[in-house]
Amino acid sequence: MKLSNNVMSMQFSPIRKFNGYAFDAKKKGKKVYHLNIGQPDISTPPAFLEAVKNFDETVLAYAESGGDTKLIEAVIQYFNRFGAKIETEDILITNGGSEALQMVFSCILDPGDQVMMAEPFYTNYHTFIAAAGGEIAPITTTAEEGYFYADPVKLEKAYTENCKAIAIVNPGNPTGCTLSEADIQVICDFAVKHDLWIVADEVYREFVYDGGKMNTFAKYPAIADRLIIVDSVSKRFSACGARVGFVLTKNKDMQDGLMKIAQGRLCCPTLEMLGAAALYELPGEYFNETRTEYEQRRDCVYRELMKIPGIVCQKPGGAFYIMAKLPVESTDDFLVWLLTEFDDGGETVMYAPAEGFYATPGLGKSEIRIAYILKQEDLVRAIELIRLGLEKYKAEGHR
Amino acid sequence: MKLSNNVMSMQFSPIRKFNGYAFDAKKKGKKVYHLNIGQPDISTPPAFLEAVKNFDETVLAYAESGGDTKLIEAVIQYFNRFGAKIETEDILITNGGSEALQMVFSCILDPGDQVMMAEPFYTNYHTFIAAAGGEIAPITTTAEEGYFYADPVKLEKAYTENCKAIAIVNPGNPTGCTLSEADIQVICDFAVKHDLWIVADEVYREFVYDGGKMNTFAKYPAIADRLIIVDSVSKRFSACGARVGFVLTKNKDMQDGLMKIAQGRLCCPTLEMLGAAALYELPGEYFNETRTEYEQRRDCVYRELMKIPGIVCQKPGGAFYIMAKLPVESTDDFLVWLLTEFDDGGETVMYAPAEGFYATPGLGKSEIRIAYILKQEDLVRAIELIRLGLEKYKAEGHR
């Protein structure tokens, strides 16, 4: 008895794999500032729980495989704001954006197939793509150039004959990169040229700063037949624990493929879909306050990071992550040291080491991802702890 | 752009694929008795929604990937009733039994690998196994012998070199077959002999009639290292819409493989896990009333079915399904006719045609699965509608 090659080739989540060290640090009485996971501290709108509490049927029954009609309708109304015309059959509700991505790659990939994707990328793409027997064809980007990837030369360089899709996270996790209209056009043209599916992960759609425009690939009719949008309530409404997402596609074959998988797992939880429908019914103004808060946090984190000698870091335009290159050889080793050896007044800090965000071996070892999901005073202290930690780490002779 | 071979080889749910006909029939004012889906009409215990309503955190945050500690603890206590000693790390909470099965087969199967399974089987196994690139090696059983499969000769005949696992649903869906202690021993010995994983789907564990003993493969230490139990709250607590299940295994490699996939999809919904924990805390007596109700329904359905001339049907010992062979060439065609051409006083009936429950081409075309999830007077009427329909169908010259 052995495990499948697919599962053997998967990795444990690099974001979660150091949790044991953090757990031990806390057991010893240390306070740990968590910058490692995209769990916002913003309150979930009360509308969610109110809708759940209003459920009054005596049997909590199976829902439709494609999702609750009320939620689908609310999602369609939400897309109207962006000028995208969506039909009921275009939407399939999923258990978070995660299940959406699992389903999509299962529909696209046969063993050996590849998905183009800018690296560093959200690390769980490794898992979703490997589960379908595929692999990532990385579009390599660097800290020095702000992780920009929408460049025809870079795209052509990364392309192989085995590529079936290009996956875009916009605004980006972990880089915070945002695409302009022109950037999107570059990607659309490239996908058409090579006959690729476009998997557009837009879960951070509202998190665009500096007056930048919110956008969606759903607005570009020329690629409508090859477009698969993945989305989620997790970040948009600070409702990560709801696990409600969706896939949006106008490609009929893809709709059929997704529905086969969806019917296999029967349906999503009824109560969570009721709650999510209430979230999508919130007015568009809901996002303004949250956006302002995150923009201020981004500015704060960036300002504090720039005080660290030797750091390489560009100010990102969206999402709520920032990547940084630290003057150490291994941010894995530095993190373990921070959690086990270091404290300043009983406090330490945790980030996500970035090696697991790369497909190309050897890249990302000196980089970290920070999720700026804490209030500003905590962010200031957390970045200070990285700075103080670095000073001590270097002084102890670590490299 | 095309879809993956895996998804192309999958089928739409044969249980759900006739829903459009039923929808149209209802739109025309017909009443449709649904015997086609295992959605119980028993009330979900109020403890579920009470626990959900008591949630009082301001942020609905990600849960642990392996599941909520309170729920895992409640599951462990529940297993104590069966004399099975389960540890925290043995349990991984999933989005229903469906996700549990997807994960398990993804951990076991490489393309071309096979899973032994009695046919007819719960049709979504097709989807779960195909999604992992595998296929079913069917242990063929028949209506005439009550769909019994725990026979060394039958098992050896179905075995191939590509088999990596044997999957058992006990009590059985769709057959209602239950395994005796001796039957379980036959399967355990066979799995050890051929070094197979045992995937034991025990979601109907409590639904055993005629004074039969509830059982679990978790009680057999000789196979502990090759055992993977899949379970769910859906049927046990009439909470299908909660989508809470779990995998139980003591095999450390399997635990690691499952956790990799679980971390990829982050976690299950927090609120549903709180509700499910409250369900598992219900006293063991909770099941007695439900069991009695279903046993009476089974007797009722069987009695009514036996009034149909030419039917082949054995009284099953568990779950809440009964398979029957009707004197028609195609139960698919007969069902479409029932929904589109037939009514008796404005009423008709829907069952699940059984062809999709078989892996061997050509089998099951004359068989149906009935879920006895309606109250007895409705069951009597529903079976009467099948009988009246059959008379008219034959009288019209259909075969």
Key terms:
Aspartate Aminotransferase, domain 1; Aspartate Aminotransferase, domain 2; seven-stranded mixed beta sheet; 2 domains; alpha/beta; homodimer
Structure write-up:
- Two copies of one chain form a homodimer.
- Chain A has 399 residues and is of the alpha/beta class.
- Chain A folds into two domains: 5-43 and 287-395, Aspartate Aminotransferase, domain 1, CATH 3.90.1150.10; 46-280, Type I PLP-dependent aspartate aminotransferase-like (Major domain) (Aspartate Aminotransferase, domain 2), CATH 3.40.640.
- The first copy, chain A, contains 13 helices and twelve strands.
- In chain A, strands 2-8-7-6-5-3-4 form a seven-stranded mixed beta sheet, with helices on both faces. In chain A, strands 9-12-11 form a three-stranded antiparallel beta sheet. A two-stranded parallel ribbon of chain A has the order 1-10.
- The longest helix of chain A has 20 residues, at 286-305.
- Chain A is globular.
- Chain A starts with a helix and ends with a helix.
- The model of chain A has no long low-confidence stretch (mean pLDDT 95).
- Chains A and B meet through helix 1, helix 3, helix 5, helix 6 and helix 9 of A and helix 1, helix 3, helix 5, helix 6 and helix 9 of B.
